[in-house]
Specification:
This protein is of the alpha+beta class. About 45% of the residues lie in helices and about 25% in strands. The protein is rod-shaped. It starts with about 20 loop residues before the first helix and ends in a 25-residue tail after the last helix.
Length: about 270
């Protein structure tokens, strides 16, 4: 004769929860959670502008994961995403010029990861390549390039300085698969002492230029006066001087040492009628 199975009630006769069922409920919930987590761990989505690397126990086993839905073995494999879009890095670098002036330079670098070398970059550096490779390369390259110019050239040859910095950075990061798309010196400033000296120099140059212009004006005026005097000397004759003297004379002879022979002093010829 078969035994009749015992029916397990969720609530006891008093309406309380049957604690005997708790272990079973917990087990069922745990299994459901495990199944859900396993399902979600079995795939990963690669977005546009990213490249996926499948890693199994720390080793890259697939580098050809495309955008979209990609499967993996749960708990054994993982998919690492590497950003291959153009990114921007801004930083402030303190360096010295050729003439030993301190300069603070703010730079902006646009860069991207070469997707064909993404696996090599991850394998050799990891996903923190910005802190490990890019930032140190930028600072070292800026210091090296700035040291080739004096303070004045940094201002007058800004495009040339930028080109030198860009070339230096590219040489350091291209071997890791990082491509520098653009580089800009967005701002730079010198020490307060040097800035004050530059301002004083500009004021001195302006004063010198003003003095020079004034001196040139005086020279021109003196030359004009000399030419006028020379022209006047050429046009004045004894007869003209005598005529002007007579026109201004009031008819009275001055009482002088020369007495009545005053006219002889001017070597004038009179026609006495």
């Amino acid at each position: 004769m078969k035994e009749k199975k015992e029916k397990i009630e969720l609530f006891d006769e008093y309406g309380d929860f049957n604690l005997d069922l708790l272990p079973r409920i917990v087990g069922i919930v745990a299994i459901i959670i495990f199944i859900v987590v396993t399902i979600f761990c079995s795939f990963k989505t690669i977005k546009s502008g990213e490249v996926g690397l499948k890693v199994r126990f720390g080793k890259i086993v697939d580098t050809s994961l495309n955008e979209g839905f990609n499967l993996k073995i749960p708990y054994i494999e993982k998919i690492v995403k590497v950003n291959i879009k153009v990114q921007k890095e801004e930083t402030l670098v303190e360096s010295s010029t050729k003439d030993m002036q301190i300069i603070n330079t703010t730079i902006a670098v646009n860069y991207r990861v070469d997707y064909t070398k993404a696996s090599s970059l991850y394998k050799n550096v990891g996903n923190n390549y910005q802190e490990t490779i890019l930032d140190p390369a930028i600072k070292e390259s800026i210091k090296s390039a700035i040291a080739q110019y004096n303070a004045e050239e940094i201002t007058t040859k800004r495009s040339e300085v930028s080109a030198s910095c860009l070339e230096a950075i590219q040489k350091k990061v291209e071997k890791y698969g990082i491509i520098v798309e653009d580089f800009n010196l967005t701002d730079f400033s010198f020490s307060q002492a040097y800035t004050t000296a530059i301002e004083q120099k500009k004021v001195a140059e302006q004063n010198l230029e003003r003095t020079k212009l004034q001196a040139e004006a005086q020279i021109i005026e003196a030359e004009a006066t000399k030419k006028a005097n020379d022209l006047l000397k050429k046009t004045l004759t004894d007869e003209l001087i005598a005529k002007q003297f007579i026109e201004k004379w009031d008819g009275k002879l001055p009482e002088t040492y020369a007495g009545g022979n005053i006219l002889k002093m001017f070597n004038l010829k009179w026609n006495i009628i």
